[in-house]
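Q: what does this look like with magnesium ion bound?
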Amino acid sequence: MTVYSPATIHTRTNNPYAFGELEHQDGAHIVIVDDSAANLRIYAKIAAGLEPNVRVHSFNDPRKALEWLTENHADLVISDYKMPTMHGAEFTRHVRQVPTCPDVPVVVVTAYADHDFRIEALESGASDFLLSPVDYLEFQTRARNLVRLGRHQRLMRAHAFSLEHELKESEKSRDELLRHSRERLAQVIDTVPAMISATDAEGNCIFVNAYQGSVLGGALRRPADSSPELDRQVLASGKALEGFEETFIDNAGGARTFLTVKSPLREADGKTIGVLTSSLDITERKRAEAQLVYLAQHDHLTTLPNRAHLYDRLRRELESHRISGRVFALHFLDLDRFKYINDGLGHPFGNRLLQAVAQRLQHAIGEGDMVARLGGDEFAIIQVTATSPSDAAQFASRINQLLLDPFVIDGRKVVTSASIGVTLYPRDGESVEELLQNADLAMYRVKASRRGGFTFFAREMLQQAHEAIRLQSSLPHALEAGEFVLHYQPQIDLRSGKVMGAEALIRWQSQHDGLVQPAGFLRAAEETGLIQEIDQWVLHEACRQAKVWFKTLVNPVRVSVNLSPLRSSTSSIFDMVMRQLDATGLPPTLLGIELTEEVLLQRTHSAVRDLENLQQRGVQISVDDFGTGYSSLARLTSLHVDQLKIERTFVAGLEDPNNVAIIRAVVGLGRALNIEVLAEGAETGYQVDQVRLAGCDAVQGYYTGYPMDAGQFEAFLRARPADQRAQQQPHRMPAAQRQPALAVGQRW
Ligand code: C2E
Ligand code: MG
Ligand code: MG
C-alpha cells in the first residue's frame, strides 16, 4: 500500500498533471466503519462500484480503523454514527487528529431523526453525512465527488508544495550561484596584479585583496597620506577620481609606482556608501619610460649626458642666470687627432679612450657643473661654478693638463690633448645656440694653432669666420688661378751645420687676402676633397723646383713634401710619386715624403708596400709630428722609415723635464732602429743647443731658418758661410713672411 505524503508525491513527480497516472495506477482507498456487519457489507459493495480498482477497508471497531489510518492513506472514510465503543462525531475528531488525515473526506451516516447528531458530526470535522437507510445512488455520487475532491486537494497541496520546493531550490541554487561567483570574483580580485581595497563612509577599510597584502604586507591602510582626503572627495561628489600616480615602499623596501583610480561604491539605490580604490603597478612601465628618457638624454658609450640633454640644461641655466644676473662658462672641447687614434688603433680602442676621457672629465667638474658628450670626440662642460673669466680659464687649463696625462688602455699607453673654446654667459652669447657656436669657434681657433690648449671666444673670431667662409668659397679657383706657392724651410744637420734638406710648405697667395697659411685653408680643402689635387700640385711643384736646384746648385738639397692623411684608398702613393719623379727627372734620393704617425698606422698593406717601394728607390720617408704617442715600436720597425720629426710642442716646452725625457727617448729609439731624428720648431739658440745635446741629428725651426719662397731659399743657401758650423746668428725672417701670427681664416 502506498502512502502519499507530499514529499513522496514530489519525489515521484514534479508534474501536477500526473494526477491521471496516479488514478490509474492506484484505486481509491475507502475505509468503512460500522458495528453492523450487514451495513459493512452493503457499504463495501456500493463503494466498490465507485471507480475501477477501489480498495475497501472495513472495520467494525472505530479504534481499529483509527489504528489503520495512522499507518495508511485513505481517500474516503465512511462511518456509522451510533457505535458502541465510540460515536461518529468522536471518531471524526480522532481522524482529524491523525497527522496524515487532516483533510481526508469523512462521511457520517445517521438516521433521519438524529438531527443533533448530524450537527455534532459536522462540527467535529466531518465532510458530509448520509441518511440511513442509505440511498445507493446518493451514496455513490457523494462518495465519488468526495474522493475526487480529496484527490484534487491533495494534488493541489502537492503542487503548491512542489512549487514552493522548487522555489526554495531555485533560490538555493541562485544563492549558490551568487556565492560561487562571489568566490570566483574574490579569487579573481585576489589574483589580479593590482591592489584593490574598499573603505566605508567612515573611512574604515572594509576590504583588501591578497595582492595588496603581498605588496604592502597586509597593511589595511594605504600608506599614501593623500588617500583619506581623496576618499572624502569621492564620497562627497559620488564621482570617480581620474587616475593618478602614487609611490609606495613595498615589503621588500623597494619603491613602487602605482596608477590609482578611486571610484564610488554604490548601493542598489545609487547611494554612495564607500570608496573602491584600485592601483595598478606601473613600476616596470615607469622604469621602461625612465630608461627611454635616460637613453634619449645620455650617450650610450660614455653614459655622459648627450647633446639634447646639454641643450635642455643650458636652456634652464640661461633662464635662472638671466634672473640672478650671474655668470657661467661653457667649455667646448675637442680631442686633438682623435680620428687617427681611432683609425690607427681601432674603433674599440678609440671607444675606450673616449670612455676614459669622459671619466676624467666627470671627476674634474665641480658640483652642479655638467659634462656632456656632443658626439665623436667633442665634449662640452657647463661650468656654473665659474663666476669670472679667471675661474673659467683656470678650469680650462686644468682640463688641458688633466688630459695630457697619458691614458693606459689595454696595457697600451696613449697620449691625447684637447682643444678647448670657452664662452661666458652673458658676455659671449645670450642663447644656447650662440654660446655653443661661439665656443665651437674658439675651439677651432685653438685647433688651428696645432697644439692643445684653450682660448676664450672673441668677437673678431666671428668676423674672421665669415671671412674664412668667403675665402673657402674661392678656394677651388685658387688652383686654376695658380695662386698656390711653395715655401721652403731649411733642415739643418746638427753635426755639420749643413743644410741637408728643405720642407716644402704650401701657401695661398690670394688676390684678396694676401698670403694665407695652410691652417687657413687645408682643412677646408680636405673637407671638399680638393686636397688630392692640391697634393698632386705640391708634389709636382716640389719635384720641379728640386730638379732646378739639383741642376744649378753645387750642393743640392732634398725637398720633403707633406702628404695629406685623407687620401682615397684607390690612388696609389707609389704611382703618384713615380709619375712626378718621371715627369721632372728628379733623382728619387732628392725627394722626401712626410706622413704623420697616425697616418702611417692606418695605412693598408698595399700602401705600406708602396712606401717600401719608394724607400727602396731612395725616396726618404719621414714620420711627421712624432711623439704624440700613438706609434708602436713594432709598427715603426716594420715600416722602415728614414726619419722621425719630433713634434714642435716638445721642443717649445723644453723647460719641462718630461719633454726632454720624451726627446731623449725618441733619440734612443732612432738610434736603435737606425732612424734619423729631427727636432721641429726650434725658435731659440737655447732650444737648438738643447736638442743637439739630447742627441737629435737635425733641426728645423725659425731659429735656423724660416719658411721662404724659392728665390729667398736659394739666396739663403748661397749666403751661408763656408764653415756652416760657425753660423751663430739666428735667421732673420724674410720680409714676405712677416704677417700676423694668426692669418685670416685660421679657423681651418
Ligand atoms: P708640418 O708638416 O709639421 O710643418 C711644419 C710647420 O711648422 C709649418 O707650418 C712651419 O711653418 C711651422 N714651423 C717651422 N718652424 C717653426 C718654429 O720654429 N716655430 C713655429 N711656431 N712654427 C714653426 P705651416 O707651414 O703653417 O704648415 C702647417 C702644416 O700644414 C704642416 O705641418 C703640414 O702638416 C701642413 N702642410 C703644409 N704644407 C702642406 C702641403 O703642401 N700639403 C699638405 N698636405 N699639408 C701641408
Ligand atoms: Mg711636415
Ligand atoms: Mg711637423
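Residues 1-182 form a domain with the Rossmann fold fold (CATH 3.40.50.2300). Confidence is low (pLDDT under 50) at residues 1-24, 738-748.
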